[in-house]
Amino acid sequence: SQVLRLERSRRTGVVFPLQKLARYLAPGTDTAPFRLFQPGLAALQRAEELFRSGRHHTIDYVSSAVRMDHAPPPVLPEVCFIGRSNVGKSSLIRALFSLSPEVEVRVSKTPGHTKKMNFFKVGKYFTLVDMPGYGYRAPQDFVEMVEAYLQERRTLKRTFLLVDGVVGLQKTDHIGIEMLEEFGIPYVMVLTKIDRASRGLLLKNVLEIQEFVKEKTQGCFPQLFLVSSQEFSGVHLLRCFVAHVTGNLPAVEGS
């Protein structure tokens, strides 16, 4: 909660880890994809307010569902988070909601723990959905559940596809990519666990994924989002992007 009060250079290192990484690129490298979404301090503060519950702004777990007919009515703009099992999805969602510690986001040490779609309502502004992990120990009906959600949820504004920042894009990640591309769903790639990767390894993975996005995808936002749920790097920027794509930051410079 103190990060946005830091002096600018220190704040930039925490809020914009991708820009910090860009300093180590070879001269002449195209850095445009590193700074497509570059909100100012006012926008970051507004996003922080949205993720902080208060007397007239309740953030809470709503319900879980294994089928679409069990899902809450699609009233608010929605974002969903998907990724392979053990990518750190629940930990990231808990970090996003860290300003509202009463929100219960269960984090398991056992891969594949999330078996249902979990819905979290952020006041009157938007809903965040934690989807089951795919790959190891994925629910048997995972594909049917997630495909139905992606195709039918008319309030879905953006899907956040999580990729392990240490190992980069894996074969199992293509399950999510292929679904999103097939259905024409706009999505963003988020690299998790960046605190566990060396600078060189992280930069290698970032450049490889950026090239993949440029050459092989249609619906993916060109800028990657780097996050650490342990050190909170990139969490403020991701909050801001969620607020932006759900229509709660109508004007963001550099967006």
From TrEMBL:
SUPFAM superfamilies attached to this UniProt entry: P-loop containing nucleoside triphosphate hydrolases
UniProt-listed InterPro entries: EngB_GTPase, G_ENGB_dom, GTP-bd, GTP-bd_ribosome_bio_YsxC, P-loop_NTPase
Keywords: GTP-binding, Magnesium, Metal-binding, Nucleotide-binding
Domain EngB-type G: 75-248
One of the record's GO molecular function terms: metal ion binding
Name of one Pfam family that matches: MMR_HSR1
Needed co-factor(s): Mg(2+)
A single GO cellular-component term on record: mitochondrion
PANTHER family linked to this entry: GTP-BINDING PROTEIN 8
Family: Belongs to the TRAFAC class TrmE-Era-EngA-EngB-Septin-like GTPase superfamily. EngB GTPase family.
Listed name of the protein: GTP-binding protein 8
Organism of this sequence: Corythaeola cristata
Gene behind this protein: Gtpbp8
